[in-house]
């Protein structure tokens, strides 16, 4: 007696689906075929949605995630899919999961790091001068051993214990040749593994991140440590951002199609931690301005070619959103020629690289950002770029479809540029979106005659 695929019980189908590729491709292949398969795909027993976020099935937050409003809404959208390979809907669903995941990680880090700082400071205050010198020297020697000996979880955990349970602190030294450099350690022990085929256990990666966090808690000045990138020295945050936004170039001279996602998650976690730490430490926008400009200079170059593309791009967008929310541009920035020139270059790169989601995210951030856009926008130049081919035209349509952006983008100036280029399809769309342009043109013509 033959058995069809659909005749199999749910439990057997779940086992088959688990071995049918990565999560996105599983949904892309099976969603929309029938209602039963849609229900199985979002069943928490199969835990595909949390698998997509690289969460272990017995992670303590799995149930919380599945019970959240975001997971419920995404599940309903996935259940309603009736057309297979509906990429747009699937991408939006999974992107929203990643953004939710990062927001939750941020909230957890916010609570945890404050407790760790207060705990460390309370222990440190109880130490005598002799105890302080001895425990600090022990930490210094342990870090030296870490540099000179093979990496072991035992040694890393010993360093974390010295800091968080005994109050040890590593002194900051701005000399290029001091014994321990946090930027170099993060680069060599963690970031270098991002594109490496060398196997590293999740426990080792997590231990390394915990050690780096502990060192930062003990002495925030360590974030100023620098390492070389080409011909210049850069601090910790620069390398973390490079690993997020220039994933194909930071530690490799070739296009990367394989990424260690356990390592990527750890880098994301460490970056979120440094953001929270700087917010707590400085309580001003200077750090956010530096971070924001660094991201602007990196994000336009990103071109991820990997099966993890959706997770990585959503992470990049959410990190940018976090920094934009932290930094409100001061009015004087609008009159800063150097800053405006830099923003002009950033805008050019976003348009030339068709980064529509990034451009819209930046534009929606706040009113001052929108003023920068308007000051930097050049209709003739950008129309030439956005009408080169079918892909760039899609980009142009996406900008016009955004309600907030088109309130200033739709102008008589744009209309005349499109007419001059004989872009009649875009002219029709522009007039449909903003019929008042016809009257503005009449008024403009009347003004010229008079």
Task: Report on this structure.
This protein has 450 residues and is mainly alpha-helical. It has three domains: 5-90, no CATH class; 127-322, no CATH class; 328-450, no CATH class. The protein is 67% helix and 2% strand. The protein is built from 24 helices and two strands. The chain has helices spanning 10-18, 23-30, 35-42, 48-52, 62-66, 69-79, 87-126, 129-148, 153-164, 182-189, 202-218, 236-245, 261-282, 286-299, 309-326, 337-352, 356-365, 367-376, 379-386, 390-401, 403-409, 412-420, 424-433, 436-449; strands at 226-229, 232-235. It has a two-stranded antiparallel ribbon. A hairpin with a 2-residue loop joins strand 1 (226-229) and strand 2 (232-235). Helix 7 packs across helix 15 (309-326) and helix 12 (236-245) packs across helix 13 (261-282).
Q: Tell me about the biggest sheet? A: 2 strands, antiparallel
Average pLDDT taken over every residue: 83
Shape, please?
Answer: globular
Strand order in the largest sheet: 1-2
Number of helices: 24
Radius of gyration: 26 Å
Distance between the termini: 90 Å
Q: Which regions have little confidence, pLDDT < 50, spanning 5+ residues?
A: 445-450
Structural class: mainly alpha
Give the topology string: H per helix, E per strand. HHHHHHHHHHHEEHHHHHHHHHHHHH
Q: How much helix is in the residues?
A: 55-70%
Percentage beta strand? under 5%
Number of domains: 3
Assembly state: single chain
Number of strands: 2
